[in-house]
């Protein structure tokens, strides 16, 4: 089991930046691939970004490529999502998720462990 806690959400203006952090406890975090998903009101949970357990391979959704980056520090048991040039359509609850595999999935159903989410609101 691994426990995940997100932080760093907030309310910002379009064009601003936020850095979300996912802190893990429990099992050896370096044995888990981690992803960020987001869910806007009335919509499905969408994939945002993922990183493999070594931290040397990442994958970003097309809608955030060039604006968001994902990174991890296995010594600190954290995975961060740096979000730049935020847009109103980025408004959602952001969740981190983990699965005990070397690589990653973009399908939410493939992840076994989830955090409680953090709200990001971007106003125009």
What is the residue-mean pLDDT, rounded to a whole number? Answer: 95
N to C succession of SSEs = EEEEEEEEEEE
Spatial shape: globular
Main beta sheet strand tally, sense and closure: 7 strands, mixed
Number of helices: 0
Report the sheet-strand fraction: over 45%
Radius of gyration from CA coordinates? 13 Å
Distance between the termini: 40 Å
Portion of residues in helices?
Answer: under 10%
- How many β-strands, per DSSP? 11
Poorly predicted parts:
none
Structural class: mainly beta
Explain this structure to me?
With 124 residues, this protein is mainly beta. The protein is 0% helix and 51% strand. It has no helices and 11 strands. It has strands at residues 2-7, 10-13, 18-26, 33-39, 46-51, 58-60, 68-73, 78-83, 92-99, 113-114, 118-123. Strands 2, 4, 5, 6, 9, 10 and 11 form a 7-stranded mixed sheet that branches. A 4-stranded antiparallel sheet has the order 1-3-8-7, with no helix packed on it. A hairpin with a 4-residue loop joins strand 7 (68-73) and strand 8. The chain is globular, with a radius of gyration of 13 Å. It starts with a strand and ends with a strand. The mean pLDDT is 95.
């Amino acid at each position: 089991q691994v426990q995940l806690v997100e932080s760093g959400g907030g309310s910002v203006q379009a064009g601003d930046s936020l850095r979300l952090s996912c802190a893990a406890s429990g099992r050896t975090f370096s044995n888990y691939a981690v992803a960020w998903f987001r869910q806007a009101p009335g919509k499905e949970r969408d994939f945002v970004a993922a990183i493999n357990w070594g931290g040397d391979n990442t994958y970003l959704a097309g809608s955030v490529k060039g604006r968001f980056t994902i990174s991890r520090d296995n010594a600190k048991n954290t995975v961060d999502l740096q979000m730049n040039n935020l847009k109103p359509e980025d408004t959602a609850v952001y969740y981190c998720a983990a699965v005990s595999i070397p690589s990653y999935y973009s399908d939410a159903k493939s992840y076994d462990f989830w955090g409680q989410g953090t709200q990001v609101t971007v106003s125009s």
